[in-house]
Design a protein that fits this description.
It is built from 14 helices and no strands. It is globular, with a radius of gyration of 21 Å. It has a single domain, classed as ABC transporter involved in vitamin B12 uptake, BtuC (Orthogonal Bundle), CATH 1.10.3470.10. The N terminus is likely disordered. The chain is mainly α. Helix 5 packs antiparallel against helix 11.
Amino acid sequence: MSFQDFSLNGFLKRTRLYTLIVAERWPLLFPMLIVLIVAVFASMACGASGCDMDFYQREKILQLRWFRVSMACAIGALLSLSGALLQLLLRNPLADPYTLGISGGAAVGALLSGFFLPIGIVAVGMQVGSMLGAVASILLLFLMARRRLFAPPTMVEAPGIGLILTGVMIASGFGAIISLLLALSPDAELRGALFWLMGDLDVDSVSGLVWLVLLLAGGWSLWRAPQLNLLAHGEATAHLLGVSVPRLRLQVLLLASIATAAAVSVAGAIGFIGLVVPHVCRLILGNDQRRLLPASMLLGAAALVLADLVARTIVAPIQLPVGVVTALIGVPVFLFILSRRT
């Protein structure tokens, strides 16, 4: 092997070859789109009331199911995109919004707003509170791990395990605050708060904020995908090729935090979507961010729609929290993936 193979030209040649190989896998995105379409139709057709509907109730039931399906699509896509970005940033398979405490901060902000605001503005207040809670968690991460986040690539290759441990401690702290709020809440509100914290898609309207955040986050991710590909090859390599690594780190973390906050403000804490789905997409499509990120959004939306369908039908007419279903399915799937990689 010649010295040229280790040069910048050699790296770019290998990158172009890798891109051509991965480009042949574009058709694999279409089966994911088909899976999402099938999941949407199945979720619209069946629910807690069964698959057969009375003619006079059909319109109302379909409208309510459409609200749930629409929110499940947007929230599943946001959580999966957030997980994929954080795993890229930290190059750690355990990275997701919940590991870093972002969802915990959003949940605390939403609960505080729900407990102390008047009933008429609770819905809007919970979304605002969720955003503020996510911002608080981001500020804590910045304060505790700012040296790693903004260090030049020549000094530290990635924020890595230090940021993961910081996020775990922040998540534990927010978990304690959530337990305290639940202990102090009235009994009449306790069950609803617990149900929401375990993941609740029982909405009566479509949130335009969630879809707006999804469009902006998805558009930014696709626009920055080439730079994210360079970051995936190593932060020193990305720096040599002209990428402002500290600024890109900051943008990825902010985008993942905002996406998580938007999802938590509507549906509560739904785990394992952002952890498992990016792994599955990475096994199928490889690590090219131009394919991985849109695939994660498609498969994340389909996964949450199907999980919500199971939550509504498995013990009908009782509806389970969708977060319970995602955990019961996500834990064995993630353990299986890890067993195959080790």
